[in-house]
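Lab channel / #folding
Pinned by the channel admin:
"Please post every new chain as: sequence first, then the structure tokens as a reply. Keep commentary short and put observations after the output so the thread stays searchable."

First post following the new format, from NK:
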Amino acid sequence: MKKQFSNQLEELSKIVGEKNLLTREEQMLDYSHDEFPDVEISQVPLAVVKPVNTHQVSEIMKWANKTKIPVTPRGGGTGLCGACIPSPGGIVLSLENMNRIIEIDSDNRMAVVEPGVRFMDFYEAVEKENLFFPPHPGDESAAIGGVIATNAGGARALKYGVIRNFVKGLEVVLPDGEIIQLGGKILKNSTGYSLLHLMIGSEGTLGIVTKGIFNLLPPPKTQVTLIAPFDNLENAIRVVPALAKAGILPMAVEFIEDDSIKVAEDFMKKKWPCQEGKAHLMIILDGTGDDEVLNVARQIGTVCGEFGARDVFVADTKGKQKEILEIRSNIYETIKKYVIEILDIALPPSAIPGHVDTVHKLSREYNLWLPTFGHAADGNVHTLPLRAHYREGKWEEIPESQWKKVYPRVRKALHDDARKRGGLVSGEHGIGLVKKEYLADAVGENVVEKMRLIKKVFDPNNILNPGKIF
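Reply from TO:
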């Protein structure tokens, strides 16, 4: 295949130039994987092409459609489900060179950006214009194109929604090279079928996003973080509907169990503000002023007390808030070396305690540590099965033969439990390569068949990121 493919290189080189065409294996290793922990799913592509504009993307897709060589679009490579793993016998189309923030339109509160822009740069540009982009996926090095492709969420989805809620327009190159414009700098759109929303979350299987238009908001004036410890997770989660009934809408509500906090504390040499309790709620509030936010914080404290909170710690300075968020954000980094997979189950929020109880039972039954945390108010639960235990400040690895034998059973049991509770496979990471086996069980084979038909309409030759989702 490689010998046959070498005959095609000249045509690709003419499109993007020699410096934007990688063909040596050592150059392409970084493009063979995403952040999914299991490196066995990695695949070195035949080549990596790095276009600099929409016209080049279009020409690449025309070439691919003619040669029938698969193309896998790639943003920042920070995904967690193998969605940008190269298809066997195919090339990677990296959007890293299309990284311009084209416009921050303050009059219309819209931003126009290319897909290779990193979120850390996007946030900075938006804040300079005294505006606010609420969605906050966990990794700020993520590229905008990939975040659109997975409809990423993040902790702020409770109040502000996910990426889908802020994408107002897209420029998309279709598998045959055609360029289409969807939406625009408009807030309301009932003009025919929403192909815009069909592209969002399609994981690069229907088209390649080459430009995005985002709605922006005025920034909140004040932000406060609360930590409330509870004796058990059930009481902690019961706070969430009680807040809704009280008319309180936080920016974010996260739940974290004490074992996950402990390992992050040890790693960072910092202390979580509350040392009591088995389960903690981290509640972030924002608003128009100090008095308003602190008044809501007092109301939340009262509600938490009604459900057995041992205390409510208020982080009312940026320094205190930063330290809390650093510990919370570094839980994954502290255990990353031993993570087998990051599950991304979506549940009705009230089903979280029952599901986490199942997690605990499976942990005991199979002797796997299954640290679990997530977005309490929007029901997105992340369980991270580990191939090691953390005891008395030390890691104890589990033999590979042991965890590889039991993990598939644990994984299936967790997804089965979620389905029984009205849950779905993914809340924000997507399906990609690694969750395909659960899709039909989650949504029904008839729905998957409709997805296949949509894919066939857009990509009859199946050359754009084939083998992903289903």
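NK: The chain has 17 helices and 18 strands.
TO: also worth noting, The CA atoms of residues 158 and 378 lie 6 Å apart.
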